[in-house]
Amino acid sequence: MLGIMMKEVKFLTEKSQDKEKNLSFKEQILKDLAGEKEEQTPSSTSQSEADAASAKETAAAEDFEARPASVDVSYKVAENEKAHPQVYGRVDEEDKKPNEVLSRANRANNTVKKKRQNTLARRIMTTVLLIVLLGLVVTGVVGYTYVSSALKPVDANATEYVTVEVPEGSSSKQIGEILEKKGLIKNAQVFSLYSKIKSFNNYQSGYYNLQKSMDLDTIARQLQEGGTDTPQPPVVGKVTIPEGYTLEQIAEAVTVNAAATSKKTSKTPFSKDDFLAKVQDEAFISKMAAKYPQLLGTLPSKDSGVKYRLEGYLFPATYNYGEDADLESLIDQMLGAMNTNLSSYYSTIEAKNLTVNEVLTLASLVEKEGSTDQDRKDIASVFYNRLNQAMPLQSNIAILYAQGKLGKKTTLKEDAEIDTNIDSPFNVYKKEGLMPGPVDSPSMSALEATINPSKTDYLYFVANVETGAVYFANTYEEHAKNVEEHVNSKLTQSSSSSN
To answer: Matching Pfam families, A to Z (predicted)?
Structure first.
């Protein structure tokens, strides 16, 4: 009996296991729940109750499969949560007030803090800007003062000369460095910058004698004039000879320092009397004639009737002189300048069968009679036309020279009433041909006009000494008309107004 029962139990067990294997997921959950309940049931539960429970489980399983599964989930909620259910998006007033007060306080503190930070930042920024601006102003003032100082002389009271050599091809920067090393300028960079601003890019090579009393601009401009090929004695002054000056006027001019900056330096070491004595020194003239044979080869002789043999041979220009300069070297410079300026014309002069003395003599009249290049060329043509026709030149300039009045201001009346009967080799009203020599030092304009005159048929001209206007004529009748209209009528008007 027992064996039969064991077989049945085994059969039921195996059957139950097979059935359990075939249970669905949902049935397995129900089974587990039922197992938990069995554990809670006392051990004295009868088999019938077990069968009944098994039947219920089967029915429950079938019912579970017949309807959707639902799982009851229970939450244990605190009492206060039951009383005050939470709703998302809302905050309880009691909870909100403390947080809100705290939030407002924090925001207020944050606002004050940010304002303080912003104020501090602004103060720092303002301070930094002020420091930067102050730095810029200070830098500008210091820079301006420094540059201004660098443009001024190194020593305004210096009188000594410093010889400087500027090599060929030197840049403004290199020249500035040379000048700074010599102590002639304060800063080479300022010199280079100043040269660029002023567009001084034509500095010449050579030797220069400069002074520490010169400002930067003066030094820069001297460097543009060109130096000498070899070192020369320092220049301490200048003599300027204007165009058309007579030799006696030149004697006055050599006593004045044209480069004077004060009354102390306004005089040269030369005197008028010494100058006039030197230009009449026959030994000196012979020495110069040997040095400049083309220029002085036809120099008028002493007994030719000239007052000064070298009259008209000294070229009008500005000349430098040094500490050890003498009149002989100064006059030598003037003769050398005339020789240099005429050197390109010597062949032309010879081709026209003229002498240098004739050209200078005629040019000295052309210089005074005309004021423009064209007038001078036309006046030269009149003189040549009259010479070719054996007519006297009839120039008042020669008469004024003979009277010792040339170079002085002459009124229209004095010019009209000039004494044309004066006994002098320079009276070209009575004497045909040229005077024995020049009456003044002609300019290059007058020399050019004399060597290459206009081609005209003019035989007459009259010049208004007050206006400088020149009126030309081919015939005497035309000339008389010009004289009446431009000279005599004005004299009548002037006489009437004076009465």
So the answer is: YceG
109 burial (CB, 10 Å; 0-12 / 13-18 / 19+) is exposed
Q: Which residues of 50-88 are buried (b: 16+ CB within 10 A; e: fewer)?
A: eeeeeeebeeebeebeeeeeeeeeeeeeeeeeeeeeeee
Specify whether 272 is located in the same domain as 172.
no
Report whether pLDDT(39) > 90. no
pLDDT tens, position by position, 63-77? 544 455 444 444 444
Mean pLDDT score across all residues of the chain: 82
Burial of 362 (0-12, 13-18, 19+ CB in 10 A): buried
Band (pLDDT 50/70/90 cuts) for residue 417 is confident
**% of the chain with per-residue pLDDT over 70:** 75
pLDDT at 109 over 90: no
Domain final residue, candidates 443, 458, 473: 458
Question: Looking at the structure, do residues 287 and 190 belong to the same domain, yes or no?
Answer: no
Within this chain, do residues 205 and 275 fall inside the same structural domain, yes or no?
no
Over range 293-316, report the average pLDDT: 96
Pick the closest to residue 467 from 395, 375, 380 (CA basis): 375
pLDDT value at position 353? Answer: 96
Q: Is residue 472 part of a domain?
A: no
How large is the average pLDDT for residues 429-454?
A: 96
Q: Which of 212, 232, 252 is the last residue of a domain?
A: 232
CATH assignment of the domain containing 227 = 3.30.1490.480
Beta carbons of 321 and 412 less than 8 angstroms apart:
no
Looking at the fold, whether 201 and 251 belong to one and the same domain comes out as no
- Tell me the residue length of the chain: 499
In a domain, 271, yes or no: yes
Q: Which domain holds residue 256?
A: 238-458
